[in-house]
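Exercise 3.2. Students should predict the tertiary structure of the chain below and write it as structure tokens, then compare their answer with the key that follows.

Predict this chain's 3D structure.
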Amino acid sequence: MLLHEKLAPYRLLLASQSPRRRELMSGCGLPYELAPKFDCEERYPADLAAEEVPGYLSRLKSEAYPSPLAPQEILLTADTVVVLDGEVLGKPHGRDEAVEMLRRLSARRHTVVSGVTFRTPDRMHTFTARTSVWFRRLEREEIDYYVDTFRPFDKAGSYGIQEWIGYAAIERIEGSFYNVMGLPIQKLYVELDQFLNR
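Answer key:
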């Protein structure tokens, strides 16, 4: 039985405001509804390893969901970060920080890590996915053009691989392209199928 058929008795709730995550869920043919927007203070322990942060935050978001889940509901939460030299590069707080992040990523390899959590009333499962990304050396005018034209202030690491910078500046990746967009959809598909089979 295909996964979308297995999901028929369930209500899959996507707790994300990201249009990219919604696009990936739809493209994969997974029937879902948007969960109502809710607040979650995305804080994590200072001593937590950078690559463990997105899994931690996806669980934190899941536990912050304010409504009790019905028996046939599955809540899906996710978080994506860029890791460079063991440091988390989150969403920039303005133009200057976005420019500085891209300057640091220029001519370097970094890792994009996503954490995804599924939760029902009685079970919770979290997994992570990693993708390595190589940028060529970026000129300052290219960084300025990208930041001023695409305003990537809602994106971890200050860039979206599906935008101009992905075409013009990313030399190669190892791992899931869609993970860099914000959701490792192929691994999500497999993990969700296994979650339903347990």
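Discussion points: The longest strand covers residues 73-84. The first helix runs from residue 3 to 6.
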